[in-house]
Amino acid sequence: MSARSLRHYEDEGLILPGRIGNGYRDYCRSTIDRVLIIRSLLESGLPVRLIREVLPRLADGAGGGTGAPCAEFVQEVQSYRDRLAARIAELSAQQSALDAYLREARRPDR
Predict the structure, then answer these.
(1) Contact present, 74 and 50 (Cβ < 8 Å)
(2) What is the pLDDT at residue 108?
(3) I need a labelling partner for 26 at 20 to 30 A (CA). Which of 61, 94, 98, 101 fits?
């Protein structure tokens, strides 16, 4: 994990590291665990805005301590996934239109 990423997470309000006497940041085990959760959620494509909203519930053990995500979080993720799928469909349609144009432009009888 780069120092830049850690500072970014701090600036976004995702983590709050402690400070030692000389002003250096101190990352306790719970902060490190939280960073691992953040990284996992970012790698899955979730935006920081959504992570910021749901992270307190995930980190506080919401969901009865079973590790299962709460229904609200699942609904938010599904909504984000649906918006992403719609964007992908839109881009795929644009790509198909461009492919058709290029096929037509390359026809030898033109």
Answers:
(1) no
(2) 87
(3) 61
